[in-house]
């Protein structure tokens, strides 16, 4: 490669500064050694040298959830909350207080979460859920999803079987599968996970207060047999208490964690009471697992954002959070009433509703409509402005799925008019396509 002349301008100086050219006083500029023949075909850039990890390959083999714009008339997407329910004033006041407590130094926080929040949560969990734990057992995470991901990475090795409810929560299943776990689906019924023939596994993921999606509450007998199985197996139980705050016609159900604090990892979230956009959740872990969870959290992202943690701690300690929960519980109970009435009025016996006792969604089974017709009904509903989401993708593909079409109807994001209108429009869509 020959020398390069005419280097008295800015571009040459920049190439020199970045190490592409070597410019010496009185000599011709030359291309830096090793760059003369570099091209896009360099072995360093070929696909074979860029193989993804086994984790990435497992991850990419999982079906991504379908993302869509919200439907115009009524979107029954489960997981949405109404923006009108967010406690704007209380959050703003607590936020102002938190931001004005200016720290002298902006330094990294504790990976486990701020002690103010963990203390406030300990007291709250005792009052609201009967959980007795120390603040040291609490780990603040960015939503339950991060808690599930940490459980997957800390508790499963590649090839380890894990029990998952069938049907069940896809993002939990995916976190465990991506970590290399092998899903062993176990059927659920009206009493939650069936525990009569639990297979060998290293971990079980359950939603005992409100089985996702079918809504059963895990019976007392099954709670005992699940924990006995876990003890015998040396397995952990991951308890996802995602919407435990919402019980409508039934008495509070204490979490599994209260029965066996050494076996159960309790997962809680603020996504159903404040907002899914905050990305705030928490784990209550057995004392023996504390260090592993803290260090994994540190490597993941150091810690959850401090300002949000301080605001939440303030809301919990002042009682504002519980006042807010009481208020949205009433609002969601009203939405549920309106939805159930609208379903009865417009669809009557052609729909069988399941899982309405707790939570923020119900499952509507469409009597007499085959499951194969779900895509056609969903498309017709969307054209009429209704967002409908089927239950069938939440079933394991290796075991038979129900023959009847079923939809998950989330109601916490809709006002009462939208709920009434949405079901009326759905009824006309079904009359045309049913
Ligand atoms: C079963 C289940 N667990 C947990 C969550 C909440 O997840 P996150 O806390 O990550 O927002 C949801 C939300 O839809 C859920 O359905």
CATH homolog superfamily of the largest domain: Type I PLP-dependent aspartate aminotransferase-like (Major domain)
Which hetero ligands occur in this complex? pyridoxal-5'-phosphate
Radius of gyration: 27 Å
Which architecture name of the largest domain does CATH use?
A: 3-Layer(aba) Sandwich
Return the domain count.
3
- The SS-based structural class is alpha/beta
Overall pLDDT, averaged? 92
Structure description:
- With 434 residues, this protein is an alpha/beta fold.
- It has three domains: 1-36, no CATH class; 59-81 and 323-433, Aspartate Aminotransferase, domain 1 (Alpha-Beta Complex), CATH 3.90.1150.10; 87-318, 3-Layer(aba) Sandwich (Aspartate Aminotransferase, domain 2), CATH 3.40.640.10.
- Helix content is 37%, strand content 16%.
- The protein is built from twelve helices and 16 strands.
- The strands form four sheets. It has an eight-stranded mixed β-sheet with strand order 4-11-10-9-8-5-6-7, sandwiched between helices. A four-stranded antiparallel β-sheet has the order 12-13-16-15, with helices on one face. It has a two-stranded antiparallel sheet with strand order 1-2.
- Strand 6 and strand 7 (192-193) form a beta hairpin.
- Helix 4 (115-129) crosses helix 9 (306-318).
- The protein is globular.
- The termini are far apart.
- It binds pyridoxal-5'-phosphate.
- Residues 79, 143-145, 169, 207, 212, 240, 242, 269, 271, 276, 281 line the site of pyridoxal-5'-phosphate (PLP).
């Amino acid at each position: 490669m020959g020398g390069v002349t005419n280097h008295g301008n800015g571009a040459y100086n920049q190439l020199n500064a970045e190490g592409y050219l070597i410019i010496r006083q009185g000599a011709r500029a030359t291309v830096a050694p090793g760059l003369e023949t570099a091209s896009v075909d360099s072995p360093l850039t070929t696909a074979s040298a860029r193989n993804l990890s086994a984790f990435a390959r497992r991850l990419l083999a999982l079906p991504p959830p379908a993302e869509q714009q919200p439907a115009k008339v009524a979107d029954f997407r489960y997981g949405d909350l109404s923006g009108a329910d967010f406690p704007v004033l209380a959050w703003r006041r607590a936020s102002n207080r938190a931001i004005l407590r200016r720290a002298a130094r902006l330094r990294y926080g504790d990976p486990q979460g701020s002690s103010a929040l963990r203390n406030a949560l300990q007291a709250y969990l005792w009052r609201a859920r009967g959980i007795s734990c120390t603040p040291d057992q609490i780990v603040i995470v960015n939503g339950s999803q991060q808690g599930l991901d940490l459980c997957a990475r800390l508790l499963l090795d590649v090839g380890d079987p894990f029990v998952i409810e069938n049907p069940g929560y896809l993002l939990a299943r995916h976190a465990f599968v991506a970590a290399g776990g092998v899903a062993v689906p176990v059927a659920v019924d009206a009493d939650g996970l069936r525990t009569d023939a639990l297979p060998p596994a290293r971990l079980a993921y359950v939603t005992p207060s409100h089985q996702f999606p079918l809504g059963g509450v895990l019976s007392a007998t099954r709670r005992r047999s699940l924990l006995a199985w876990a003890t015998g197996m040396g397995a952990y139980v991951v308890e996802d208490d995602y919407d435990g705050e919402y019980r409508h016609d039934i008495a509070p159900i204490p979490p599994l964690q209260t029965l066996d604090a050494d076996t159960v990892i309790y997962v809680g979230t603020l996504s159903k009471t404040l907002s899914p956009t905050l990305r705030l959740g928490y784990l209550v872990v057995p004392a023996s697992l504390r260090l592993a969870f803290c260090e994994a959290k540190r490597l993941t992202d150091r810690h959850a954002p401090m300002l949000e943690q301080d605001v939440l701690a303030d809301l919990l300690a002042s009682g504002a959070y519980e006042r807010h929960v009481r208020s949205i519980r009433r609002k969601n109970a009203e939405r549920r009433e309106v939805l159930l009435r609208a379903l009865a009025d417009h669809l009557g016996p052609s729909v069988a509703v399941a899982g309405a006792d707790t939570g923020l969604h119900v499952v509507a089974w469409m009597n007499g409509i085959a499951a194969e017709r779900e895509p056609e009904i969903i498309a017709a509903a969307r054209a009429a402005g209704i967002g409908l989401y089927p239950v069938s993708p939440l079933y394991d593909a290796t075991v038979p799925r129900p023959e009847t079409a079923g939809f998950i109807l989330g109601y916490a994001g809709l006002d009462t008019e939208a709920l009434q209108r949405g079901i009326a429009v759905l009824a006309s869509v079904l009359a045309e396509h049913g």
